[in-house]
Amino acid sequence: MKKFARVLALSLLLGTLGAGQSLAADGMAIYVNDRYLPLDTMPYVSDGTTFVPLRTVSSALGADVSWADGQANISLGGQDIVLRPNDKNAVINGTAVDLTTAPVLQNGRILVPLRFVSERLGADVAYADHIIDITGADDAALPVFGNDAYSSCVYDGKFVYLIRGGYLDSYGYIEQNTTICRIDPATGESVTLLEGGRYYSLNLAGDALYFTDNGKLTRYDLGSGESSVIIEGVWNPCVQGDYIYWLKTPEWWSSYLWRMPLAGGEAEQIVDNVFAYWPAGDSLFYSDADGNNDAGSLFRCDIDGRNVQELGSNFSMNSLKNLFTCENGAFYGVKRAVNYEELHRFDIAAKDWSMLLELPARSFFGDIKVRGDIIYYTTDDLVQYRGDNPLHLANVSGPLYRFDSDGEVQQLTDCKTGDFYVFRDVLVYQNLESGEWCCERLAD
């Protein structure tokens, strides 16, 4: 199966670079096989050369990457490459090769020229309309990337997999039975794969789906159609690289984060007191909360839970509606006032909030998804107050909107829209008026 990556231009998200480095005005986000590739170090352009994090991008192309004695070693399909930071001399299969531009070391991460690494690993690179397409070798292994730990929809570039029905109760359990279906975006045809369980948190890794069935981590083989329970007591699983991560919840507001190899093996606890988490490349971001669930802090650590660093503290969960997502070095959340809400972005490097969008009075955010420099959101209309707190009623959601980096807002649906998911070229959303799920192609 061919692999490809798309690098989508941004103008919202900027990184901090060292002396002599020039960041393109429109930053970058990377998608692989139509799926977002989380990064904790931003790509940048210098003198016409695009630099990307070595380990993340090379691994996406199926390569083995290691670091020893001040040099990076990359291996794939008979190609063995040795690179050193600030050194234009590379070694390929034992032969010295001159590079036009040397790799650089930034914040403990080595960044390398995208075209050189991609082409040396048997990939083709094309650029058009701010998108870089990388097509990998036919025999390269299909890469496995993390999904949203709180998603009920995934996309493999051909089919959409969706959990229909059910909702979470106050303890995190699924009420009512749900189904898992497969949708062909080209035809709209839907096929039910599983039914009768209480499924949640859908992940896709290789030829299998991973999800919970009321707290039981389950693997569904797409080839054979067989499912098996892996472990119990699991909430919000997320596949990242060769591991699957999940929360093991003693209380709804505070949990332990665990992980286990996808290939099997012992489970290990890596972080405690977790409220929500987001794997991103070689790092893990998470928030905690106190026992009253009204304040929390943001943290970053290595993907295995080591080297914890606090990024910010005392975020009120009452005034900050939720930390919806972590993408491209930032968290996005909604700050709530008495009769309106604002969408804010927390820059991890700068440790600073910035306001992006304010809704009209008596209108509130329903759900938010961030893809590159585009923010998608739905709204709920305010229906009444309880004291100073706004209350919302079911099925009062408004349409789905698109907000870009130029500040332009575009309405995408004409119906009351519930849950929705945005992929590289596919939009999936629930029409609350008809109860149907819709799957539409997005324009390039």
What is the CATH first-level class name of the largest domain? Mainly Beta
Radius of gyration: 22 Å
Helix count equals 2
What is the 3D shape?
Answer: globular
Could you name the ranges where pLDDT drops below 50 across 5 or more consecutive residues? 1-27, 139-146, 383-395
CATH superfamily grouping of the largest domain: TolB, C-terminal domain
- Please report the total strand number as a whole number: 45
CATH architecture of the largest domain: 6 Propeller
Structural class: mainly beta
Residues in helices, as a percent range: under 10%
Q: CATH topology of the largest domain, anyone?
A: Neuraminidase
The tally of domains stands at: 3
Strand arrangement within the widest β-sheet reads 3-2-1-14-13
Hey, roughly how much beta strand do the residues contain?
over 45%
Largest sheet: 5 strands, antiparallel
Distance between the termini: 23 Å
Report the average pLDDT across residues: 75
Q: Can you describe what's shown?
A:
The protein is mainly β and 444 residues long. 3% of the residues lie in helices and 56% in strands. The strands form twelve sheets. Strands 3-2-1-14-13 form a five-stranded antiparallel sheet. A five-stranded antiparallel sheet has the order 6-7-8-9-10, covered by helices on one side. Strands 4-5-12-11 form a four-stranded antiparallel sheet.
Kindly summarize this structure in a few lines.
This protein is mostly beta strands and 444 residues long.
